[in-house]
Amino acid sequence: MNEDLNVVLVSNRGPVSFVESDDGFQTKRGAGGLAGALDPVARRLGDNATWIAAATSEGDRKALAAGAAGDLRAELGYPVTLLDIESEVYADYYDVVSNRMLWFANHCLWDELDVHSFGEKEIAAWSSAYDPVNARFARAAADVAGPDALVLFQDYHLATAPGHLRRLRPDQTIFHFTHSSFCGPAGLEELPGEVWRAVVEGMLGSDLIGFHVPDWAEGFLAACEHVGAEVDRAAGRVALEAQTSWVRTYPIPIDAAELRERAAGAEARAWAERLAGRGRLLVRADRMEPSKNIVRGFEAFGLLKDQHPELADVRFVACLYPSRQSMPEYRAYAEQVTAAVEQVNERHPEAIELFAADDFDRTLAALTLYDVLLVNPLMDGMNLVAKEGAALNERDGVLVLSRGAGAYDELGDDAVQLHDPRDLQATADALVEALTMDAGRRTSMARRLEERAAERAPEAWINSQLDDLVAVRDHGAPASSFRQPRG
């Protein structure tokens, strides 16, 4: 990476968040993998990087009002701009539009959640909160970005921001990366017409548009055709009016060395001792999120137990944690998860051990111990847990992986493949295949998964994006080529 680059990183959540204490304000690392992926790059660039984010919590807002955000330059090594968005506006932008309308669309969750229409509240939230907040992010980027700077917008929270910045700065080099899946027209068409068109056209304000895997890029290209854009799939190029946008895939890797170091720590090893023994272990680790397909995983395990008494020794350890509990669909789903566990355990006492709170060390311990790891989402951006498990496991564990997981593109050939994650019997049969696989095949598959999970360093992910952006800025086309989806 060229250390002379000028980069503006723009995301909903920043690299750190503030927590108020008796001594003022303390910082903690931002939640999710985004901070871990982008922060090292920003630190290397120093004053050549600026991170723009929202003050997402009450602690952030108080710190901003007290002037504490100005101290982040000294702490992190690069400047951070926090936007103070009114709490009611932020709730509509984040909860109502981003995490309900757009998340459901990107994951094609309409039938799963029986949501097929939106009322005046949601449409008003788009026009009065989501799009204006995106415009505000764009203006903040325009205020700090020099003419040669690369502006990188992150995720579906900021889908229309590239279009707003393009109108402000026609010659700026702009990037947008979607970290979730992208279902395409089937997901977007359930949104009000002005919303889904604005999402696609807003993203097409970018010079370069990134996804984790080719399937999600293909979903976006199909959506571009739906709005009348000219799409060249072989080149991964989209033209809409005077703007040309390139589409590329950048599968995010894990930091295997860092994970192994944490898994070797005292807390994780204590959890490993507690979880070990008493038969073979089936594991899953997820947010309690409908797209993860958790309920069907438990129901399929119940079928396995019903149909295969010879597998009586198999236990299911589920490391889950609640997500977006302000939303009724997520509260209802958490109740369904608990009910599914209870139903299986009524028939097969203590067959499932459910942990419903976030504990990273416990999750790492479970990943070192599994005989089978179940990753069966309906549709999901990457599912890094599949890579984490492959890197950490000490038992030649077998991965059961659905076609809807982003990780399938890289790991599917060495997993027990699940083509229809809604099919309970097929899921149960895949688990049986994994549990009864002969030792030689288990070992060879596990070794290949381990190699693939750790073959790319984390910095390669963002560096490849920056290389492509520089090439677009200087030569008009990215350095990398477009990858077509698997057949």
Describe it.
It contains 20 helices and 17 strands. The protein has helices at residues 33-45, 58-66, 72-76, 87-106, 110-113, 120-144, 161-168, 185-188, 193-203, 214-226, 256-263, 266-275, 294-307, 328-347, 360-369, 384-392, 408-411, 424-435, 439-454, 458-475, and strands spanning 7-10, 16-21, 24-29, 49-54, 80-83, 150-154, 173-177, 208-211, 230-232, 237-240, 243-249, 281-287, 315-321, 352-355, 372-375, 398-402, 416-418. The strands form three sheets. Strands 5-4-1-6-7-8-11-10-9 form a nine-stranded mixed sheet, with helices on both faces. A six-stranded parallel sheet has the order 14-13-12-15-16-17, sandwiched between helices. It is globular and about 65 Å long. The protein starts with 6 loop residues before the first strand and ends in a 12-residue tail after the last helix. The mean pLDDT is 94.
What does the average pLDDT come to? 94
Number of strands: 17
The major sheet is characterized as: 9 strands, mixed
The secondary structure category is alpha/beta
The percentage helix is 40-55%
